[in-house]
Amino acid sequence: MVTDLVMPDMGGLELLAYKDRYYPRIKSIIITSHGTEELQKNAANDNALSYLEKPLDYNKLGWAIMDAIDSLDEGRLFAKLSVPSLLQQIGRAHV
Question: Burial level of 16, CB count in 10 A (0-12/13-18/19+)?
């Protein structure tokens, strides 16, 4: 799951608490433009795989997603997939 910390209706921290309670196996990547060292430490303590600050570097986001996938499938499924290929596949899924 990729989430921002500041969102309408439900804040990112509230979403993460909900996810941890009902779907603890789902890993998260947190993005924010309101980052602090404390938030970064809390993200690490809350089992977030990555913490990225805005302005977002999409290459870093791609690598964070690849690392998450790699950790879940132990390197088998996406062993030969590059970040640009992954982003292209994600783009096709939304067409």
Answer: buried
